[in-house]
Fold this sequence. Notes:
InterPro entries: Bact_solute-bd_prot1, SBP, TAT_signal. This is Extracellular solute-binding protein. This protein is of the alpha/beta class. Strands 1, 2, 3, 6, 13, 14 and 15 form a seven-stranded mixed beta sheet that branches. A four-stranded mixed beta sheet has the order 8-11-7-12. It has a two-stranded antiparallel ribbon with strand order 4-5. The chain has helices at 6-10, 50-55, 57-66, 82-94, 106-115, 121-126, 128-137, 140-144, 168-174, 185-198, 217-222, 237-243, 265-279, 294-299, 312-318, 355-366, 368-374, 390-393, 403-410, 422-438, 444-459, and strands at 42-47, 72-77, 101-105, 147-148, 151-152, 155-161, 163-167, 204-206, 231-232, 255-256, 303-308, 326-329, 339-348, 381-382, 413-415. Residues 1-38 have low confidence and may be disordered. It folds into two domains: 42-160 and 342-391, 3-Layer(aba) Sandwich (D-Maltodextrin-Binding Protein, domain 2), CATH 3.40.190; 162-242 and 255-339 and 418-460, Periplasmic binding protein-like II (D-Maltodextrin-Binding Protein, domain 2, 3-Layer(aba) Sandwich). Helix content is 41%, strand content 14%. The two termini are 34 Å apart. 52% of the residues are buried. It contains 21 helices and 15 strands. A hairpin with a 2-residue loop joins strand 4 (147-148) and strand 5.
Amino acid sequence: MTHITRRGVLAGAVGAGSFALVGSQWPRLSGADIPGRHDDSLSIAILGTNQDALARQSLVTAFNVHHPDIPVRLQAIQGTDWADFFAKILTMVAAGTPPDVCVVATEGAQLFAERLAEPLDAYVNRDADQVQDYFDDVHPSLIEAFMYKGSLYQMPIDFNAANIYFNTAAMTRAGIEYPRDDWTHDDFLAVARRMKQASPGNFVPFYWTNRLWGGIVPWLYVNDTSFLTEQRSPGGEWLWNRFYPDHAGQLTGGYLWERSNATDPRVEEAFEFVRSLVQEGLGTSPAQGGGGELVGQFSGGSIGMTPAGGFWVQGLSEAGLSPDDYDVGYFPGWRSQRHQFGAAGYAILKTSRRKDEAWEWVKFCTSREGMKLAFPSPNTTPTRRSMCDETLYGELGPKHWKVFYDTLEAHPCAPIPAPPQQAAVETALIKNVLGAVTGTAAALPAALARLDEDLTRALEV
């Protein structure tokens, strides 16, 4: 549909924090990026190329069967990652040429909620009967991730949890069985060591990338901590009481990440674990390349394990792997087994003059019909549990493909820590993770103190 998958981001490049979403740092737009000032079509901005927009035309065609009076134009905006895309949207807003609707990932959800997006509360309440089927089919953790200070700003269409992919050949060489669902970080360490001992010299048991999704954060989450403090906003009862009455009282008005937590002893403990993996040669250093190398290395058999979600199934198939060549399981537990996820959905911009038409687009794209058109292949995890089935994953997916959605059901899950200052926050994290996991154990407290200082400055912006 009009989303970019986690596979696309991981295969792309730098972390989302590499572009500041302020002032002169905004990327320049090409003429193709800027929609016509006098076009009366509903403009939907996607991250991608014109070819990507053309490939999604079937969604527009189906929408117009239901709404022939709402012309739609998909606006492809090219960018290296989500931050580049968000920055261009901000530029378009400043130039007076914003789209009406924009696909937004977790990384930008609070930025848009605070500055750019229209809350959906009134629309959801008005059309509650029409959207009931959507909420009945979507896990509440995914909805809560797009709540901000009591209001809902997006209805997510796809997500990916940070699960662990296994190279089955490496497991066979080492005599390793598929791990228990409740395996621990100590079990993970034992598996990595056995893989290393049984494999050739260029083999690395664990590949990870230095960014918010799939980087250090999953290890922090399972150690029951994070690099930012986590609080919940009050509110949201208007939604939970209506659509999730069985969970009422457990869900909130959204996440708040307002202060650094980098000096928490559990943060240091998790960093030390990852640092020891790197020092022992069991895990890659984040200095040794980014996500662009990952599919090739995993499909070539030089990687034993790596964090990934349902987005990777299609990519591994295209790289020549059969479902028997790999498998997927839950991230190992520690003090908890809380999993990280990222998601995406459509945001209606405050500046839109077509908000009612934009809401019709959002409703259609979250309907069963719209989402089946959007996700015909296993290149992400749809937010509708009914779609995560044999039809989507059975042919190309690994044996335990049910893990992709069952992660939400079996474990506590939370979104990427992404406050409105996410770009500056991720820049601070990426810069300091490198030194923290490649230095000595004695130098780790100082590295985390620098991270604390940088995060504190970033959150003051």
